[in-house]
Write a structure and sequence with these properties.
The complex is a heterodimer of chains A (151) and B (499). Chain A is mostly helical and 151 residues long. Chain A is 66% helix and 0% strand. In chain A, α1 runs antiparallel to α2 and α3 packs across α4. Chain A is flat, with a radius of gyration of 24 Å. With 499 residues, chain B is mostly helical. Helix content of chain B is 74%, strand content 1%. Chain B has 23 helices and 2 strands. A two-stranded antiparallel ribbon of chain B has the order 1-2. The longest helix of chain B has 34 residues. Chain B is globular, with a radius of gyration of 22 Å. Chain B starts with a helix and ends with a helix. The chains are: A mainly alpha (151), B mainly alpha (499). Chains A and B meet through α1, α2, α3 and α4 of A and α8, α9, α18, α19 and α20 of B.
Amino acid sequence: MNIRVRNKKDFAAGAMFIAVGAVFLAIGSEYDLGSATSMGTGYFPILIATLLLVIGVIVALASLFIEGQGIDAVEPQSLTLVLGALVLFASSLDSLGLMLSTAILVFVSSLASGRFRIAEILGSVLVIMIFAYVVFAYGLEIPFKLWPWET
Amino acid sequence: MELIDNLGLGFSVALSLVNLTYCFFGVFIGTLIGVLPGIGPLATIAMLLPLTFGMEPATALIMLSGVYYGAMYGGSTTAILVNLPGESSSVVTCLDGYQMARKGQAGKALAVSALGSFFAGSVATLVIAAFAPPLVTIAIKFASVEYFSLMTFGLVAAVVLSRGSLLKGIGMVVMGVLLGTVGSDPHTATHRFTLGFPELAEGIGFVPLAMGMFGVSEVLINLEMKDGRQVFTDKVRGLWLTLADVKAAAWPVIRGTGLGSVLGVLPGGGAILSSFASYTLEKRLAKDPSRFGKGAIEGVAGPESANNAGAQTSFIPLLTLGVPGNTVIAVMLGAMILHGIQPGPQFMIEHPDLFWAIIVSMWIGNLMLVVLNLPMIGIWVRLLSVPYRLLYPAILLFVCIGVYSINHSVFDLFLVPIFAICGYLFVKIDCDPAPLLLGYILGPMMEENLRRAMLLSHGDWTVFLTHPISLAFLLLSMVLLVLVIVPTIRSKRIDAFTE
């Protein structure tokens, strides 16, 4: 019989379950297991991880036999820009303060839509910076470091 | 009568200026995000959570619940005017609501939707007020065994109602439970799966997980869909209903309310299930079913009432049992815990003022919403013309600030993109992240109950079958699973979602 991956989505899902289950099993086996009556740290996680592993195997196996759709293409540009913007925000918040981090976040993530003009992006950055200041720093008084020169 | 006393207690708390203000704030934001596609009550409530820290628990919960049922109202507006469901529960409203708009009857659709929702909201409030106390008296007898089985039933129900295949849904739930074990072992406080990160000692933050997996991933997915939107922004006239309209809509509203009230209580139930069920019912009962899909007022009246009733009654399991029935309610549970309230049957007994204030404020919120929605339609409509590319950077900022403000932890901020890419990939492989969130929230509670149950039974696993209530929940779970596996039901499930 011809064995091939008929359902790519399910195969990926099954692989994911197997991977996650295996990782938790590996780490979890180092913890104290205990017994059913007196459960240790590792008892419940290992139980669940095993269950996940089994489900993963079933899903992956089924995907070899049952037809399904392929996975839609992934668009790396907008992904990297948005996720990158978030990472940049997180990295710069403590050093550069809220205002500049916000500017970076808005600027980089706006590029992801692919339909922007620079003037529009800069305008958006300004508006959102003002909004952030008014609502979060002034209105809700969340203690942020606002600018790089503050401590 | 005790009911009147309880409602009176609720009003005395809910009618304070602070609570009224935040109730308004909540339903306003709810309507706003309901109108805007691309951001839903789940993400919004999670985002607003950190902002509620300074508030009294009553105020916080009143505001957050306002966001949920407010979104039901807002979602209808977009569905009718743009043929885009602002909320998943408004998908059905698109079918006939948009057609009514095309025939120039947008005003009628909006009016019937708002008034039907108000009726449903009022009735649902009474339902909760009437049924919660007896439920609590039953639930208070629940022990660990019953709770474990109840939660299992809740998770199974969540899977059954999720997108994608049943098996993958179960996998997602299990994975969620597994993620919930990260942190400290509840019994001995040993660090588990923390990979050396002290920030993970309290577990993976609930807000970063929810925001990343639902909020940001939503943005990522929306950015991929580059289709333009056609908005029906011509002046919405005629917000009046003729007597004929009222006659036509009356029974669907009543039936929708009833359906929503019942289905909302079930685990996995809530607004979405109720609206779908109502549409199917109305179509089946109509004298001329062919009118449906072409602008039948019943197709708007029924589902709109149902989704409101469903949204409100889905609070019942939360308030009486302490077990969330769907993901939005799960977030509300998180909110309660964050405010130091222990959810469960004792909640009503220990905090009656808070309990009844929440229930009463739902009705107050509904009243505010009818006022907000009918006259202010023009404003909401204009909002719809704001292009998404201007909105989403602001959404991302709200997410970041919200996440950061919980623990002032940059680590949490880094978790967001990690979960965002996970959420995005999940959608790509047709795995619904909602069951994962539910599993993650219920997981620790289930572990605790399982441990206690086993301790008390000295390791005897059959105890789940020998306790009658527990057996009932487990049997119900089996029944649900079987019902889904049977092909005809399964195709109906897919039909409901693709229609």
